[in-house]
Amino acid sequence: MPLTEDRNTPRREGVELSIPMAANTTIFGGALVMLNASGLATRGAVATGQRAVGVALERKTNGAVAGAERIRVAPGIYRFRNGTGADEIVQADVGAPCFILDDDQVAKTNGGGTRSAAGTVIAVEPAGVWVRIGF
User: Can you tell me whether residue 93 is helix, strand or coil?
Assistant: First the structure.
């Protein structure tokens, strides 16, 4: 039913998320975190159908039971190592999507359809690539 008066709508800032972890997974603090097909947190890796959600704010290990542990993750703009060769991200790629190579490195290409998107390239520096990750 449409509003007929003001409403105090609950909100989240999206500054920090708590995400259940995939089974048998260790995620290191500062790692790029992605969600698998079940919506569980895993560390960044070459895979399809995954969604990057942010960077881990802690190191956490989950055992054999999926979802038994949760990890704190923050979306935002972060610097990662740049790919090499045909996967090196350059200034002309600012504003374009980049793709996950691992939990600390991004690439220019999707690897022939084998990599999930990491986010949007914000800046390229000698020290690495700044990427906007998350919702």
Answer: helix
Handedness of CA 72, 78, 82, 87 (dihedral sign): positive
| Res 11: pLDDT | 78
Q: Could you count the other beta carbons within 10 Å of the beta carbon of residue 23?
A: 15
Which phi-psi region, left, alpha or beta, contains residue 54 (left: φ > 0; alpha: ψ -120 to 50)? left
What does pTM read for this prediction? 0.89
- Gap between the Cα atoms of 56 and 18, Å rounded: 10
Phi, psi angle pair for 21, to nearest 5°: -95, 150
Query: 118 vs 4, 7, 12, 35, 81, CA distance in Å?
Result: 41, 36, 23, 11, 12
Nearest residue to 96 (alpha-carbon basis) of 124, 68, 115: 124
Residue-wise pLDDT tens digits, 97-110: 999 999 999 999 99
Residue 14 reports pLDDT greater than 70: no
Task: Yes or no: say if 71 and 41 are a contact pair by the CB < 8 Å rule.
Answer: yes
